[in-house]
Design brief:
The protein is α/β, with parallel strands linked by helices. The chain is built from six helices and eight strands; from the N terminus they run ββββαβαβαβααβα. Helix content is 35%, strand content 20%. The strands form two sheets. It has a six-stranded mixed beta sheet with strand order 1-6-4-3-2-5, with helices on both faces. It has a two-stranded parallel ribbon with strand order 7-8.
Length: 184
């Protein structure tokens, strides 16, 4: 699933790049992703988003580099509508409760091109009455696409929310793109 990493802010690098889904930014170290931000309209918007989390003596800004070019290329291919499996990508969490770990793990298991409701995801995570709490975990997901929170929808097939800058329109685009790729 991911790893807990209490040193997530030391020696971070970032990579900012354009995809067919808009500008994206990756931060991390080694092969561990600390954050992925998606759907921005410019590279400066991505940089601002990343730097808002940094900027203190205890949390310096990441070094600008083409960090993790393999993952960048995979995300660009995904943005072009190609099927890409991200289950092997190591994401680093600093703190998760047992509930959050269960939800994230269940979310990563949602197949490409498929959707589940918040209630179904709560059940899959082992907390059948926690649909609202699942929504909270999804809204704070620092790894969209890698942990495919866009595949979680409201009951009755309504899309629900999406916290990326393009909001619900990006979620709708991601789901349509995946459905098209599955149809082949």
């Amino acid at each position: 699933m991911g790893q807990r990493d209490n040193s997530a802010n030391s020696n971070q690098q970032m990579s900012i790049f354009l995809t067919d889904l808009g500008w994206m930014g990756l931060t991390g170290n080694g092969n561990h992703v600390y954050r992925l931000t998606v759907g921005h309209s410019s590279d400066s918007e991505v940089r601002e988003s990343i730097c808002q989390e940094h900027g203190t003596d205890h949390n310096p800004p990441p070094t600008d580099a083409d960090w993790f070019p393999n993952l960048r290329r995979r995300l660009q291919k995904y943005g072009q509508g190609e099927y890409v499996d991200f289950s092997d990508v190591q994401v680093a969490f600093s703190k998760l409760t047992a509930f959050q770990e269960s939800v994230i793990s269940a979310t990563r298991a949602i197949e490409y091109g498929q959707t589940v409701s918040y209630g179904e995801l709560a059940e899959l995570a082992g907390y059948p009455r926690a649909a609202r709490a699942v929504g909270t975990v999804m809204s704070s997901n620092p790894f969209p696409i890698l942990i495919p929170c866009h595949r979680v929808v409201a009951s009755g097939g309504k899309l629900g929310g999406y916290s990326a800058p393009q909001g619900i329109s990006l979620k709708e685009n991601l789901l349509a793109m995946e459905a098209e790729a599955v149809r082949g």
